[in-house]
Structure formats: structure tokens, C-alpha cells
Structure prediction request, 1053 residues.
Amino acid sequence: MRGPSAKGEWPGDLSKNDLSLMNSLLPSARIDAVFHMHDITKVYHMGDVAVHALRGVMLDLLPGEFVVILGPSGSGKSTLLNILGGLDVPSNGQVHYRDHNLTAASREELTRFRREHVGFVFQFYNLIPSLTALENAALVAEISENPLDPEECLRMVGLGDRLHHFPAQLSGGEQQRVAIARAVVKRPEVLLCDEPTGALDYTTGKLVLEVLDRINRELKTITAVITHNAAIAGMADRVIHISSGLIAEVRKNEKRVSPAELTW
Amino acid sequence: MRGSALDRKLLRDLWHMRGQVLTLALIVASGVATYVTMVGAYLSVERAQQEHYTRYRFADVFAQLKRAPNRLAAELSSIPGVSVVETRVVVEVNLDIPRLNEPAVGRLVSIPEGREPGLNTLFLRRGRYIEPGHQDEVLASEAFSSANHLEVGDSIGAVINGRWERLRIVGIALSPEYVYEIRGAEVFPDNRRFGVLWMSREALGPLFNMEGGFNDLSLSLASGASEAEVLNRVDRLLEPYGGLGAYGRDDQVSHRFLTDEIAQDRITGILVPSIFLGIAAFLIHVVLSRLVSTQRNPIGLLKAFGYSDMAVAMHYLKFALATVLLGTALGVPLGIWLGRGLARMYQNFFRFPELSFAVGPSLIFWGIAISAGAACLGALLSLRGVIALPPAEAMRAESPPQFKTGIAERTGLAQLTSVSTRMILRNLERRPWKVALTVIGLSFAVAILIVGFYFFDAIDYLVQVQFRTAQRDDVTVTLSEPHEEQAKYDITHLTGVSHAEAFRIVPARLRFAHRSKRIALLGLPPDADLRRVVAQNLDVVPVPSEGLLLTAKLAELLDVRPGETVTVEVLEGERPVRQLVVISTVDEMIGLSAYMEISTLNRMMREGGSVSGAYLSVDSDKLPRLYSQLKQTPAVAGVAVREAMLESFYRTIAESLRISTLALNFFACLIAVGMVYNSARVSLSERGHELASLRVLGFNQREISFMLLGEQALLALVSIPVGFAIGYVFCAGLTAAMQTELYRMPLVVNAKTFATSVLIVAVAAIGTGALLYRRLYRLDLVAVLKTRE
Prediction:
């Protein structure tokens, strides 16, 4: 199901038939956008087969907003995240982060971009097993110009009493919270979370979402969470549905629901 | 078919890990190649020796004497245990060789006309046997003729009884007596300036007043005969005739060198391949362990599908065996190729009618079996885990590895080091065994290189001490018979001689308790400057005015200590027997010697100021004229030119040593590369995920390379001193193993040797690091976000 007309939620002044035009104006291109993606396509070549992961995506991310990107597997949401995070470049189209053009950036420029502006939270935490919680955060602080206090970050995610524990001594939820602390210690402009609760049970998952919510509110970090768990959508400012490489729907929540009130 | 699907997986795994498989296979190949080369060479030489000895009837007992009548031969034959007796005339003369300035020494050995000698038969390489009646015909030894480019039909000049004679070479021959053709107590062969010439007994006898007599004896023993008993009886029979003491094969110079060489090859042929294969086994274990842990999932699946534990274990064992198979497929031909080269090199020193490097199927079988055994050993430890793993557990991911705070924290180093350095330290601390084995492997590479270079250090030092510090003469002149002191003054007045020092040399037997040894007693002037006795630490040891100074090895063989009295039985002239006190010993590196002051020796011999020869210091530009004078002096039995001898040595022995060391060093490099590459490659596969996620977090290529390669660099750094220690111990072991009567290798390892070894390993390590650096560039960052390793 990909036709926007079925939902009838597009702004009225736009032609419901002109899908790409609609995509280009949704959300409206704002001058204060931190990220600006224009007509992004991404084609992977796997042997003789060309896989069109993204087919003309238009998207802006605004300061301090919490975005949930929903979509089934294979919809292109991970590709979108990779391009936003500077792990990949689009085949066509333009990506801008403030005044940086990420479209034509070299590997080194992308690395610097990630280093200075992006915090990543992975589904499987990816902590360094040989480092304690505090050291995992400190490791990133060491390469940042103006980092937060790693210990403070761990307190913020509720792990003030687990500073010197190694990953193997922490539960999954705790590991993910260390990963969040590690991601925010560099004061990133944007926090990109790929299925942050995917490997966690219901209770711990909610705990992690609370932490993300708090970080977003307190540090004003743009937070993009990709997930296939639609229940999470309630805590976002905006919810973006991706399907078959296109933005199928953008919904703005009137009011963000506290993660504690989410159920699935 | 279930086997074939698994085998396809095997092939893909092998291809996927081809870098590691190849380095592993190369180390296995090194082990197999060295095994095939060294054991093959030792077996080939041993076989050639046996064939040569049997076929050409190498004698068992040898004796030299002044002159005995031929009828003594019958008495010698009747000694119980004696099988064949062959009497000969053997004399040394000065030769004039075309295109050679210096006089050479020819040892003329008599052969019967018209029949083969009963013992020490000759193999005729080219030309023909001497013909009766042609008194100027000789057969020349192959080593001598090829060193001097002499061919059948060439003539050489010889001073025989004061007259120039022309000798015509009619054949090139080899004898089991002169497989290693060396003169007297020398250590290095100098085939240009010393050679054996076989000549008709009928021609040689009259020239040296030996008609109806002989001065050299060889005999063979009947099986079961007691050599000691026969030696005793021969000595008693020869004593009235100036016998110099009979000896068995053990003291026959050529046999001794050859046997020592074979013994050494046997040791290295076992030791060196063991090191290589031990390292290969360890690496197979490391690589396979890693493969198994990355393939927990497939292992669980296979087991869940109903594959037996054995079938799964076999699958991984085949991985190890395939590696070994590749290694042996490379190693066996390489070993045969190197072995052939080694055999060719041997032929420059050891002259056999035929020395073919032949590798039997059993050698190859054992080469493969030993490597396969090493691989299985390496695989076994890794595979225990595969067998024990229940399918359900196998399909779950491994829990995160346990770490704890370690040495950095305990020592307070943590505050000083960056977090990434702490990562390196903790990774090393978590696997002390792996670290230890990697360090040992790398140290062995350093150690093998040190051993390779050590031979040069030792030989340089030996040459330095013996031929530059102890012997400082330009030319040594030996007289055919002891002469009155006047001879020294005659020598002094030869052209170009600026300084001469006389010496007296006397054959003698030293006895202490039940032990005895035939040696040469060397009498030197008290203020000797051209020939001194020098200890290994370069101290000049004074020759005592009374009593004896012994080479430490000789004292050890006699079990005599300074202050004790030995019996000296002189084997020349009036054959006096004296009791002499051993004053001191000196750790000389060459031969077995006993030194006295020349006047004391003269007194003991009840002779005036007799001299056997002189050490000369000569103006170099006058050397050619001196040579031509010496060539024509009948009283001169031999002339040794120090620099020429050293030059010949460096050209032959040192050159072959360089080649074999090069091969050894190449293999050591393979170990270094294999060790570093595999160790880093395994770390990369264990930590690639971690490193990729750090790249995602914004770490750059340099920073993550530091985390991975820093660990390897630290290991390499630790390996250097360990390698030094192991290398030094190896050298010490070799030094001890090579303590023969003929020479003792000094334990000298130069700083340059350590430095070069480290440099080679460092270059190998850095090269490998560069290879991995490129690989880190290709880390898949995107996969990290989704997979759980």
C-alpha cells in the first residue's frame, strides 16, 4: 500500500497525483533545517541486479526535533539513515548538513562529519567489550573537541552506579544506555538510532526510549529513530513512513506521548 | 550427497581465508622443505660416504713412520684382526703450478703399477691409470685439479730431491682417504695450494730412498676385531722404524670432518624443521579456533540437521589438512630443489665419485606425515570445542567476552594512557596464552635469523683471533727435516724477509692416566711475535719456559689440570719419553696443540738448536721473488701463505655458508610474516566489528589502525628481547654441539647480527601491517549497524 491518496493526509493545496512533487514539499523546505535531503536516490548493484533502495526522497530535519522513521524491512529506512549519518552517499540527489554538502564528500570528510556531528545508537549496542562503561564513553570524548563529561552522561542515562562495569557485566538495556551515553558525549547535532529497542524486552525497551526522550528534551539533540515498531511513533514530533524507497506518509503529532505511556 | 556439500563449504572457507591459508602453507612448506633438504642431504652424504668407503675399500687403521722394510708387511698381516695390509710411500714436495705464484704442496702417494691398491682404491673420474715404466705419470686429485684448472695432459713442476721434475697428469682421481682434502692440522681446505698426486711406487720409491721400504701404512680390520688392540700391536711393530703412532678412522682427518658434518646435519635436520612445524601447528590452532568461533551458527545448524559431531569435526580438520597438503605440495619440490643445490655445494668440499641428492619415497612420506601430525595437533585443541558444542548453544551468539581491569590500573598506568592504549593492554591481558605463543613464534623468527648470522660472526672472530692475532706471519716455511739453527739465518736472508722466527715441531703422544692423544708439540721462541698463543678473549698467553701449555680442549680430552704431570712420548729421533708439568691451558679454537719454549724442546730432544721451519714477515712487493726462490729450495717441504689461505677460505666456505644462511633467513622471514599476518588477521576478524563500529562513531582510519596494529607492534616489540635470548641460547647450544677436536666455534654474536635480525623481522612486520592497513580501509561500516557480529 503506497498510494498517498488512500490516506488523504497530504496538504490540500498539492496535487494528490503528483507523488514526487509532494515528496519534494513535504515537509516544507524550511530555511532553518539542519539536514536537507533533495531528491535522494540510492541504487545498489548486486551482481546483475540493480536494487533501488531509495527513489527520490525529500526530507528536512529541523532543530531539536524527534523523528521516528517507520517502515517494513527492505523499505529503505536503513539506507536513509546511512546517508543521513554519513556512512553512505546517495547515487543521485543532494544532501546537506547545514552548510556542508555531504553528497560529494570524501571518506575523510564523512569521517570528520560523523566525528563532529553525529551520534549513533545501534541495535546491538556495539560497545567495546574491553572497556568499562565509563571508558566506552571516554573513548569518544577523547576524540571530540568539546565533549560532555562522560561520567555525567552516564548519570544522565541512569547508570551512575555502573561506571566501572564491563559490557559483559551489564544487562542488554544497560548496555544500550551506555551506548546512548557514548553517543551523546560528543554533543552531537543529531542522534541516529537504528532499532534501539530491537534486541530488548518490553520493559527495558521502554526504559531506553525514556532515556532517548530525555536526551532529546534536555540537550535538544535532533533524534531520528528508525524502527518497525509502530507503537513508538507516539513519542515523536514527526512520524515518517517509508515504503519501497519513498516517503509514503509524514505525520506530525500534536502532542508527544511520554514513552512510559506507550504500549505494544 | 552430504560429503560433497560440506566439501564445497570447505573449499569456500579456504578461498575466503586464502591469505591466512597461504601464509600458513608457506610456513609448513618451509618446514617440509628444510626437512627434505637437510635430512635428504644428510642421508645422501651418508649414503655416498658408505658407498665410497665400501666400494673403494677405505682402510680402518692408518700409520706414518720414518722407514720400514717391506718384509714388515707380513708381520703386520699376521696381527690378529688385521685383514688387508697396504704399505706405501708418501712424501710431500713443493710444486710449481701454472698460473699460481705461491709454491703449492703436493702430497705424492704411491700406488702399485699394474694393479689397484688393496686399500683406498682410486675412482678414476677422467683419463687413465698410470702405465708401468712411465715414471713421470701421476693421477691428480679432483679437488686440486679443478681448483687449479688442471686437466689430463697438463704438466706440473715438482722439486724432487732437489731436482725439478715434470709430472704429467694422466688421470683425475678420487680416494676415500681424501673426500675432504686438507693438509695436516689445517681447518680449511686450500685446494689450490695443497693437492694429492698418486704416482707409481716404482717411480717414487727410488726418488726418496724408499726402495724396498715404506713410510706409510694402511690396513683394514676383520669384522669383530678390536681396533684398540690392533693399534697397540701396530705401534709396537713400528716403533723401531720411527712410527708416529697408528690411528683409526676417528682420527683420520677427512673421515673426521665428514663424519662431524653428517652429525651436524642430522641435528639441524631435526631441529630446524621442528621449529617451523611447531609454529605451523600453533598457527593452525589459532586460525582454526577463530574459524570455529565465527562459524558457531553453521556448526549448530549442521548438528541440528543431524550431522554427527565427528562429521563436523572432520570438516574442520580437513581445513587444517588441506593447508598442510598445500604446504607439502610446495615444500617437497622446494626441498628437492634446495637439496640438489646443497649437494652441489657439498661437492666443492666433499669429493665423492657420485653425490646425488636422492629423496626416497619414505623421506617424502615422513615429511608429509610429520606436517600432517603437526596440523592435527594444532587442530585438535580447537576442535575439542566443536565436538562439545550442543547445537542449540552453537546457534546462539557467543556472550560478550569477559574483561577485567588489569595491569594498567594496578600500576597506575591507567591515568597516563589513553583509552585506546588501555584497550590494547586489556586485549593482550585477556589472552595470556595466545600472547605468549605469538611472542614465542615471532621470537623464533628473530632467533633463527640470529643463528643464521651468528655463523658469520663466529667464523670472522675465529679468523680474527687465529689468523690475525695469533698468527701474524706472512709466510710459514716448513722444512722437510729438522735443520740446525743455521737454517733460520739462511731463511732470514731470503729475498724480502724482514723478520723470521724459528719454530720446532715434534710429533708426540701425550699420556695422562689411561688417556692418550697424538699431537704435535710446538716449540716457540719466548719473545715470539709472529706466532703467539692467543686465548678467545684475545689475551696473549705466554709460553712457559719449563713445562707445557695445552689447548683447553686437549686438557679436557686427557682430563688433565694445570699442575699435573703428563707423560710425553716423542715419536721422532731418539724418541725420548719425558714427564712434563702442565703449566696452563688456553681456550684456542682450532685443533689440539701443546706448546713449549723452543729451547726447552730442543733440550728435551737432546739436540742443539734444531728448527723445523720459520714464520716470516715479508715485504709484500718482494713476495713473487720469494716464492720463486722457495719453489726451488729442496729443503723446504711446504710453504703456507696466510692471506692466500684466508682468501681461498672466504671464497669457498664463507660463500657456501652465505648461500645456506640466505635460505634459512628467507624461511625466517616467512615465519615472521606468517606470524604477524595471522595474528593480526585473527585479531581483525575478532575485532573487525568493534573497529567498524568505531569508524561509524567517527574514528578515522589511523586511529582504528593504531588499535589493531598497535597491539601487534607491542607483541613484536616484546618478541625482540625474547628472540635475542632464544637466539643466543641457540647459538650457545650450537657452539656446544660443535666442540669438535678440529675446531671450536666461539660464542660471539655481534651487535650487527642482533640489529639485522630485528630489522628483517621489523620490515616483515611493517609490510604485513601495511597489508592490513589496506584491509581496514575496506571495513564494511554499514553491516555493523545491523549485525550482531
User: Anything to note?
Assistant: Chain B touches chain A through 35 residues (CB under 8 Å). The radius of gyration of chain B is 33 Å.
